[in-house]
Amino acid sequence: MKQKLLLVFFIFSVGLLNAQQLAFPGADGFGKKAIGGRGGEVYHVVNLNDSGAGSFREAISQPKRTVVFDISGVIKLESKLQIASYITIAGQTAPGDGIVVYGNGVSMTGSNDVIIRYMRFRGSVNMNKGTCTLAADNAHDIIFDHVTVEWGRWDNLHIKESNNVTLQYCLIGEGINPQMFGALLENPTNLTIHHCLWVDNQSRNPKAKAGIEVINNVIYNWGSNGLVGGHSAADHFQDLINNYFIAGPNSSNVFLGMFSATDHVYHRGNLVDLDKDGKLNGRAVIDSDIINTTATLVNSAQRPGLSETAIESAEAAYKSVILNAGASLKRDEIDNRLIAYVKSLGKTGQVIKSEEEVGGQPAIKMAKAPKDKDGDGIPDEWEKKHKLNSNDAADGKLIVSSGYSNLEEYLNDLVK
Description:
Elements: H1 2-20, E1 41-45, H2 56-59, E2 65-69, E3 73-76, E4 81-82, E5 87-90, E6 99-102, E7 106-107, E8 112-117, E9 120-122, E10 134-135, E11 140-145, E12 148-150, E13 157-160, E14 163-168, E15 171-173, E16 183-186, E17 189-194, E18 197-199, E19 207-209, E20 211-215, E21 218-220, E22 227-229, E23 236-241, E24 244-246, E25 256-257, E26 263-268, E27 271-273, E28 283-284, H3 287-291, E29 296-297, H4 314-324, H5 333-343, H6 380-385, H7 394-397, H8 406-414
């Protein structure tokens, strides 16, 4: 009887742990419990081909996979790419200077439980003009962590009718012709965007036609508009907390625009710096800034999803974003250029029409990942150090007391 009770307690404890499990340590906001590929197959990307065995396209074509990278470089897409459900894309495993997925759109429309970390996605002026670089429509339980999204033709990012989504420490920049826009968020609910950098987009930084919390973001060098409201007959709910709006060379004074009475806005702790003088000396965003957009001002947060302990002041968030936004484990020259614009505090930056204006996508030096004899996604050296068996692929899938698999423990260790 005692053994049966212990077994029941163990099963109950494991079930409770899984119900509370974060996608990874530090995951926050509404998408923080995305499952990803936990416990599933490991797929090694071993080449930079557009398709076929060992390619990124093949890796994300089937559910219940954790995708690891054995090489670095630029994967040039010849056509759009679709990500399946229950996928973890572990960009932090790419050796050397990491991975860029370039040249066409990447979608997870209709998918759920996707974790994407430390990846760079860039579109191109050569793709169809209505294409967004990254799209997550009709999806749920998605988290983007330290992801770079650039060079979208319609918007860099599109999220429509989705639920429980987080963007954290992402870089969304340099939208290109014909719109040069940051992101269109069409009726997602429970959407968290925190500690992200919006840079050199003409407008929509983002367009918050949504139930959304926008916390600790930096919006730099917008063109005609900074953050844009839903501006429609439907009700939308936006919580704007401790963000920093910083004008650049292309910026108008319209850091908030295109709201209407159906936009219900809660705000606190936001700052705006419009003088382009090379100094971080913004003023507080006040009630009249919101009222003047014709939005409806509300007195309390409407979509609290982010942990209160994760929220910084706007000044502190500026520093965090500069250090961490985008695929920052090792930034490439494009993201470094954009970060330098922001650090100029109004002096440099540009809204572009084509990636060719800024030199296009440069090559990334190829490198190889450390040896992984059993192919479980964990290098032999790490397995030895943590008393695992480098000849047994099954131990990578094993869920340990933390609630993560041994493979996830390794992936999390890479970015501590």
